[in-house]
Amino acid sequence: MRPRRTLRSPLVVALSLLAPLALSLGAARAGDLKARVTGFESLRPAALASATAADKKLFTLREFDPLVPPKYTNISAKPDKDVTLAIYGAGDKSGFGLGAVIRLAGGRAVPSTVVIPPGVAVFFRNDDPFVHHVKGPELSRDLRPGESHKLEPKGKLSEFTDDLVPSVKAWVVVEDGVIANRWPNPDGSVRITDMADAEYTIKAFFEGKAKTSVTFKVPAKGSVDLKEPIAVAPPAASGK
Amino acid sequence: MMLLSRFWYAILGVALAAAIAFVYVGIHQHNRIRETDTRLIIDHDRDIVDWYLRIDSRRRLDALAIVSIDDQVRNGIVKANAQEKVAHEVREAMKKRLGDLAQKFSGLIKDEGKGGAVPIALFAVDARGRVVSHVNFDRAGQVKDDTFELGGFPVVADALHGWLRDDTWVFDRDSIYRVVARPVVAAEGAPPAGAVVAVRRVDDGFAKTLVDRTEVPVAFYVAAPDGDAVKVAARAVPDKSDVSFDGFTIEGKSPADDKSYQETGSSPLRQAGPMTVAYSRLIGMSWESGAGYVVARKVTSIADPSALLAGADESDKKAVPMGLLIGIALAAILIGIGATVVEHGMPLTKLSREANKFAKGQQDALPLAKLSGPFRKIGQEVNEGVERVIAKGGGASRKAADLEQILGPVPAAPQMSAFSFGLAPEPGPAPGRQSGPSVDDMLANLPPAAGAAPEPAKPAGPPPKPAGPPPKPAAKPAAPVVPPAPAAPVISSLVEDSSEAEDDATMVQKIPEELMAAAKSGEVRAIETADELVQWRQTFDEFVNMRQKCGEPTTGLSFEKFQGQLRKNKEQLVKQYNCKRVKFTVYEKDGKAALKATPIKD
Hints:
The complex is a heterodimer of chains A (240) and B (602). Chain A is mainly β.
């Protein structure tokens, strides 16, 4: 039986979260990156499967509000939670600090995907007021409100679910060369500051899978504004 | 004999047994129908609860509109959307407003909970899924406002995309929440600014409200997929229900182990102690989380007839047709009494009347013909007893020749059989005739050997003596001592002329004048013993044949006893009438074999 490693101290968790910010992507801090993620409206998280549930086992009543235009009724991914930008380039894994954190909050995993280099730990932390039971490779345990669990994934791709809250789904991708993870803003815009002058590649992940990638070079001075959006999927046609 | 009353007793016995049989059949039929009906009721109960939950969701969604269109709520959500971190002031202002709305919401759907506590928890969620503010949430102490989100739940995510929806949550493997959510629209043509969510914990109060409106005993449970036990979250039964969920447990994961339950969400009917139950999965996220509800009914069966009255109420008792039952009982009583009077009372009265006459000397014996059934037997035995007393006292017996004295032990035979031989007294005199004397009487009444005119028979008296010297022996043997066939009627008529002639007794014919004269003249010849035995043997054979002809039993008859009795009778008659011989002849009387004795003095 693998011993559980639990981090209960909020201080430790906070440090692990702040570590990527404290540590720059590169040794020499230079410019910023401006970009935009598009196509997330077409992505439908598996955790929100009720949007396409045909067997009607997930609700007794579901109807759209006539005050809401149909174009906004499309159940889609939240870019700030469901789309993970994995950055490859100059630097090392020190940018992850103590490790990557997946919060269990609001009945889901935030973010739903983390991409880490080998040797970096993942923390599952329960921010909900009820018990989660996280289940995945080498993991099956209850997480009470406020509890965390540290895990070092062994495989390339690990999927985690929750027996008690089916809407919780998380993916951990282990890849070489990843120096940091970033997430777009709710509207899809991306702004990454204090990047060292070097060439980088950004891969956009959704539910553990890379949807697209873009390579760019940050100059010694100034910012990079990617003209081409980071398109994770074709634009959505209509709401469902 | 006493057939009517005995038959009535048999009818009553059979009727009682049939009534008990009907009771058992009725009980079994009741139990069988009750079980079938209970199964149908449970199926309907399941549908009723399902529809109640659907309608309840609709009512809650409709009531939630007062929250989604509330200006203060809407403005607070819009402000929160613009803030990286929701301001404390926004949260507090909205919390107060949500409290008021929760009160109003509760009143709208008439779900006021127990103890005055509002059971409705309200949440305002911004477009990012963050909880801007909330009230009445029983788990609020386990979460920080800054990290409290609900946007990941499908029902909230749908609301944030413009959908009205319901859901059922299960927390901590033991708590169930009914959830409805709807979007908050801040501007026309714009995406939802956020959503409002109403949560109602499924507790005993929720179950009680459901039961009050449906009369269905119901319990909500959680059979968590990773749990090892089923936990009952809420339960309630109607006030007058015989179902009780006290101590109700669901063993293991029995609902979840059922294939039908897993696939369709409904289990087959099962037995849980005295109750028949059916499990159903709750629609929503709870479908996967293992939550469900169970409806139960108790099959009220009647164990045995003694439980019939115990379970009857006043209306049941009033349904009994008392008039009809009383009529049946009275009719049965009257029939029984009538049968008893006819078969017991009246014959007994008749016996009493005849015995009274007998005691007053109005008659010499009990008239058996007037008696019936066992009373005739009693009368017969009384008569025989009287005869024996008379005989012991030296009086003249009125008794006819005792068959057994003649024939020895006679096989038992039913009364009224032909065992009378014409010797036993008839049940009653023939029409126009009186009861005649017995053989002894007739023997006693025979005229003296001198050939005196016939006299009425006397009950007793010394035998007549010959009036003159013995007759001379005839020159040659006398004519046959046995009169020719025509002679018998003649002799019989002599006897019958007597007012006390008795048909039933062994007939002793009057001695013909010529025979008496011959006797007086001394023309007497002795009968050889051998010849007499031959004749008696012939008489015995005729007697046996006659009995067989008349259908009377012949077992037990032996010639030795027969001839012994004939000899005694002969000696008695010879002594009494001073005759030489006695001729016995066989004849049929009233379908029975009978013997006739004729003294011969030659």
